[in-house]
Design goal:
Blueprint: E1 2-7, H1 12-27, E2 31-36, H2 57-63, H3 71-92, E3 96-100, E4 103-105, E5 117-119, E6 147-150, E7 176-179, H4 181-194, H5 199-202, E8 210-214, E9 218-220
Parallel strand pairs: 1-2, 1-3, 5-8
Antiparallel strand pairs: 3-7, 4-9, 5-7, 6-8
Helix pairs in contact: 2-3, 3-4
């Protein structure tokens, strides 16, 4: 499976971690390359000229630009990285993996049978140093059978903002996942029809068939740079 490691060019920590990620994925036989990510300095809003989803987390950040040091544009840049990846999946016409700089491969890729979205780091998302390493997530019993599994109906990471997505199961971050062309098309259509939302919020069970692979072939770097919270 082809994989793309998204990193922030010029940021020392991101550069270092992306090279560590690259080495790990190459060691396990992934077809991988590093891709320079979008930042607020390189963001071209005309790439996806859609309004924000009404009631979304992204729209909340926009209303607080002066207070949150432009976190809105940071979150929007992260979203555009995921949407641009979806475009490349459509162009390649084959499933591909999206990898953030702080992800590390621990297993080789497989010909996983999934329909649209597949989390590759599912079983590690509630562990330190991730932001979800807290209650109620750490109390949730993660389980799966070898291979691909549907996100359980009681999965605790659920969309809570008052938009059309409220109550949907959402991905526990975007550190490592795969999309099929069908999933890429649905994600891009959701952004166009429903508006723009934070990347790990727009990837939800309202928009995509959510599956994960067990055991997870990807884990996290020991240091979380938290670049989505500020550069």
């Amino acid at each position: 499976m082809k994989a793309e490691i998204i990193y922030v060019k010029g940021h020392e920590g991101s550069e270092v971690q992306s090279l560590q990620a690259l080495a790990s994925f190459e060691m396990f036989g992934w077809d991988v390359e590093r891709i320079e990510g979008v930042t607020p300095n390189t963001l071209q809003e005309s790439d996806f000229p859609y309004p924000d989803t009404t009631g979304s987390r992204l729209s909340d950040f926009k209303s607080q630009i002066s207070q949150n040091n432009n976190k809105y544009y940071i979150k929007k840049s992260c979203l555009f990285n995921n949407l641009k990846f979806a475009q490349r999946v459509l162009e390649a016409d084959e499933p591909m993996a999206f990898i953030e700089h702080d992800a590390l491969a621990i297993e080789p890729p497989d010909t996983w049978d999934f329909t649209e979205f597949l989390s590759l780091s599912y079983e590690h998302a509630f562990k330190a140093p991730q932001a979800l390493n807290k209650s109620p997530y750490t109390e949730y019993k993660l389980r799966g059978v070898p291979g691909t599994n549907p996100f359980p109906v009681d999965y605790p990471v659920q969309y809570y903002h008052p938009s059309l997505y409220k109550g949907a199961r959402q991905t526990p971050g975007t550190a490592a996942y795969a999309l099929t062309p069908a999933g890429a098309e649905r994600l891009l259509e959701a952004a166009k029809i429903n508006g723009l939302e934070q990347s790990d919020y727009i990837i939800n069970s309202h928009n995509l068939d959510m599956q994960f692979v067990w055991p997870s072939p990807v884990k996290y770097n020991d240091e979380n740079l938290n670049l989505s919270h500020g550069l």
